[in-house]
Amino acid sequence: QVQLVESGGGLVQAGGSLRLSCAASGSIFSIDVTAWYRQAPGKQRDLVATITSGDSINYADSMKGRFTISRDNAKNTVYLQMNSLKPEDTAVYYCYAHAKLGSRRDYWGQGTQVTVSS
Questions:
Q1: What whole-number distance in Å separates Cα of residue 48 and Cα of residue 80?
Q2: What is the DSSP pairing of strand 67-72 with strand 106-108?
Q3: How remote is the C-alpha of 71 from its chain's centroid?
Q4: What's the per-residue H, E or C state across the chain?
Q5: pLDDT per residue over 93-117, tens digit each?
Q6: How do residues 4-54 score in pLDDT, each as one tens digit?
Q7: Rounded CA gap, 76 and 5, in Å?
Q8: Alpha-carbon torsion, ordered 36, 94, 107, 34, to 10 deg
Q9: 7-31 burial, b if ≥16 CB within 10 A, otherwise e?
Q10: What is the distance between the alpha carbons of residues 7 and 78, in angstroms, rounded to a whole number?
Q11: pLDDT (0 to 100) of residue 101
């Protein structure tokens, strides 16, 4: 089992920055991919960025250049640095982890709200 706890969301003005954190615990050795998703009200949950255990990184096209995903293995934490935020970035941001072992493979955090005011 893997537990994910997000933090760092909040209210920010357009053009501002936030850094989200996703702290993992439990069977973290089994995680091969960690990702950030976001879901705006009334919309589907969309991929923001992924990072593998080998530090391969990918971004959704619309996030490239403004968002940066990174990890601190010593803290078992994955970050999402978000710069030049826009009102359309307003959403609940979720951390996701895929486990390569075990009967359960997909884990989600509880989400953290990001609100960007114009």
A1: 9
A2: unpaired
A3: 11
A4: CEEEEEECCEEEECCCCEEEEEEEEECHHHEEEEEEEEECCCCCEEEEEEEECCCCEEECHHHCCCEEEEEEHHHCEEEEEECCCCHHHCEEEEEEEEECCCCCCEEECCCEEEEEEC
A5: 999 999 998 888 999 999 999 999 9
A6: 999 999 999 999 999 999 999 998 999 999 999 999 999 999 999 999 999
A7: 11
A8: 20
A9: ebbeebeeeeebebbbbbeebbebb
A10: 11
A11: 86
* Rounded Cα distance, 49 and 46, in Å: 10
Structure tokens at 82: 């978000």
Pairing of strands 106-108, 91-99: antiparallel
Q: Are 4 and 112 in contact (CB under 8 A)?
A: no
Cα separation, 20 vs 36, in Å, equals 9
